[in-house]
Design brief:
Layout: H1 2-10, H2 14-22, H3 32-44, H4 48-59, H5 70-82, H6 86-103, H7 111-128, H8 137-147, H9 151-161, H10 171-186, H11 193-205, H12 212-225, H13 228-241, H14 249-268, H15 272-284, H16 291-299, H17 310-323, H18 330-342, H19 346-358, H20 365-377, H21 381-392, H22 402-414, H23 418-430, H24 437-449, H25 455-467, H26 474-487, H27 491-502, H28 511-523, H29 530-536, H30 546-558, H31 562-571, H32 579-591, H33 595-607, H34 612-619
């Protein structure tokens, strides 16, 4: 089976190679050769995730390491670096090259030169593409190649390649913990994290410790499962077990992954100040957070109350990453493009999308989905559909629902073309993509709001959801309530659906249900009926949202009851008011000719420093024949 797997992998036959490999006795001494062959196969195919799986197998085999590991190590490092995972690729190469130097028997007398060539190969790959080493270790390693023929420098370079903690590292235990965390994470939660923590403690009681990267993985898991205290405890263990020794690049590399994990953990938990402290510690050892961690800086902006212009801050973070010598990854570009898309900065989206491709960073399905969504936001149908076609034709395309949902929503809300919405829904299914709850909501809205109106078809979507073994959720019922009350003007029917949902213990009351009911009441000029329901919301643990407030402000303004509208506006805390809330209240004051109060509302909005593109339309409401300075 070993020979079959190797031959099939060399021939590019993934199916045969994988089946044969799965039948190999992993205790055999010849497992390394087929593992290397499958590693090479998936690297050639550009499937880094699967290649990473075989790399983990290769590095955790309890077999003697020899010079045959040099070529796959260099090849794997180049593949990782080329995919944007620079630090991970360099760390893997350094660790394996060090193990080869330490544990291999040099029968030919050329082992040092062969390792040097492997290091030089990685260095040349990076230099040719202008890729910078995030922790400056590789440049030091490359000195090994330049001076390896001088005895003194050979000793010096060997010192640079040595991990002083290698002898006390439990490689087998590290592999077990890594597999546990990967398996638990695959289930969507760290329910077995305590088992991994106990394994770590037992390892330490025996006087051993895990690999650097395992500390990093444990910190990330702890932050998600247990919180910052446990993450700090693991960091303290690492500081005690493997203190930073600045003279060893291997140790510095290892600590880059640990400190990078701490930055990510802090960002995940919303503590940006503490993240900056660990960021500074990385800078102090000549390194920076990884590109993906800079991506987290961007994606967690929404958790920071300090910013309202997330797009501008995202660009600043991206530029900071570049200034620190970090090679951007697809995740970092995706995070940046996502923020720019939400801000409707489509020119910037396309600029960074183009830059990404020019740098040889292949756009992922997420990238295309983000760009398609951004183009839909600015109603650029031609380019949205063009990029959608390009996405589907990608050789490594991974089907995801988001871009299909984006185009469905575009044709639902902007173009209002029922046939095109249903076309992309069918196209989605033909690709074997499982519709999401949002997909089903779009279907309900399509049948209920686009001509020809078909309420029974909208209701039938809920049966489709049930047929998949799922249950309709509040968002689906809220769409039906809106359709009944606002489209076919059946307020009683809307109330009946609302009441039936609220009496169903399997459905958690949500703000969207109340919003749809209030919209139906306002559309039927029954805003006075909303007061009692609004009072009952806290009993259901539902808070008033800015969007509910917008509806009610509009309703009371139609009744010329500005005091009621003002009460609703003031129910929303200042920090939670959206631009649309300011717009609704501004219009309400202008409707009753109370221009001074409208100006105060706009001034408050401007004091919160929203992007100009967001506020200009609202400010223009005060223009016209008047020219007062509102700032």
């Amino acid at each position: 089976m070993s020979r079959i797997a190797t031959a099939a992998a060399d021939a590019g036959d993934k199916n045969t190679a994988s089946i044969a490999y799965s039948h190999i006795d992993k205790c055999l001494s010849d497992i390394s050769l087929p593992t290397m062959a499958l590693l090479a196969l998936y690297i050639r195919d550009g499937d880094i995730i699967t290649a990473l799986h075989y790399w983990h197998i290769l590095t955790n085999l309890n077999l003697s390491i020899d010079s045959s590991y040099i070529e796959p190590t260099a090849m794997f490092a180049v593949a990782m670096i080329g995919s944007g995972r620079v630090l991970e690729g360099l760390s893997a190469a350094q660790e394996m090259f060090a193990r080869i130097k330490t544990f291999s028997i040099d029968r030919s007398g050329h082992l040092s030169d062969e390792v040097s060539e492997g290091i030089d190969f990685v260095h040349q790959f990076m230099s040719a593409r202008g890729i910078l080493d995030p922790s400056l270790g590789l440049s030091e390693l490359c000195e090994y190649k330049k001076t390896s023929r001088e005895f003194y420098h050979v000793v010096s370079s060997q010192q640079e390649l040595i991990d002083p903690y290698s002898a006390s590292t439990d490689f087998k235990g590290s592999a077990i913990i890594s597999d546990e965390l990967k398996r638990i994470n695959g289930r969507g939660k760290y329910s077995g994290f305590n088992d991994s923590l106990r394994r770590l403690q037992n390892m330490r009681h025996a006087g051993r410790h895990p690999r650097y990267i395992v500390y990093a993985k444990l910190i990330a898991a702890a932050a998600r499962e247990k919180g910052m205290d446990v993450a700090h405890q693991i960091l303290d263990m690492a500081r005690a077990d493997i203190p930073i020794l600045y003279q060893y690049p291997m140790v510095r590399y290892g600590w880059v992954s640990i400190l990078d994990a701490m930055v990510g953990a802090c960002l995940t938990l919303g503590n940006r100040g503490l993240a900056e402290q660990f960021h500074d510690e990385l800078l102090s050892i000549g390194a920076s957070p990884t590109a993906n961690t800079f991506g987290l800086y961007i994606t967690t902006l929404k958790n920071s109350a300090k910013t309202l212009d997330e797009a501008a801050d995202a660009i600043n973070i991206f530029n900071r990453a570049k200034s620190e010598g970090v090679q951007p990854s697809s995740f970092l570009y995706n995070a940046l493009i996502g923020k720019l898309g939400k801000a409707r900065r489509i020119d910037d989206c396309l600029y960074y999308f183009s830059e990404m491709r020019e740098l040889g960073i292949h756009p992922t399905s997420v990238t295309y989905g983000t760009i398609v969504n951004a183009l839909c936001r600015v109603s650029d149908q031609k380019n949205a559909e063009k990029l959608f076609e390009e996405m589907e034709s990608m050789p490594n395309y991974k089907a995801r629902p988001a871009p299909y949902n984006s185009l469905m929503q575009f044709f639902l809300t902007t173009k209002r073309e029922k046939s095109r919405v249903l076309y992309y829904y069918e196209r989605m299914k033909s690709r074997g993509i499982k519709p999401t709850n949002h997909t089903y909501k779009l279907l309900v809205d399509t049948h209920a709001t686009l001509e020809p109106i078909n309420i029974p078809a909208a209701e039938a979507v809920l049966d489709v959801i049930r047929s998949t073994g799922q249950q309709p959720e509040a968002i689906h019922y809220s769409s039906l309530i809106h359709a009944k009350g606002c489209v076919v003007h059946d307020l009683d029917g809307a109330k009946d659906i609302f009441d039936s949902v609220m009496s169903d213990p399997s459905i958690t009351p949500q703000a969207c249900l109340y919003q749809s009911l209030f919209e139906a009441m306002v559309a039927s000029e029954c805003v006075h009926e909303t007061e009692q329901i609004l009072l009952e919301m806290p009993n259901q643990n539902v808070e008033i949202t800015p969007y509910i407030a917008n509806t009610l402000i509009h309703g009371w303004a139609n009744e010329r009851n500005i005091e009621k509208a003002k009460q609703i506006f003031e129910m929303i805390e200042r920090e939670k008011r959206e631009p649309s809330t300011y717009e609704a209240m501004t219009r309400a004051y202008l409707d009753v000719q109370d221009r001074p109060s409208a100006i105060k509302v706009v001034q408050e909005m401007q004091s919160r420093h929203y992007p100009y593109a967001v506020t200009s339309k609202i400010s223009e409401l005060l223009m016209g024949s008047h020219s007062e300075n509102i700032i």
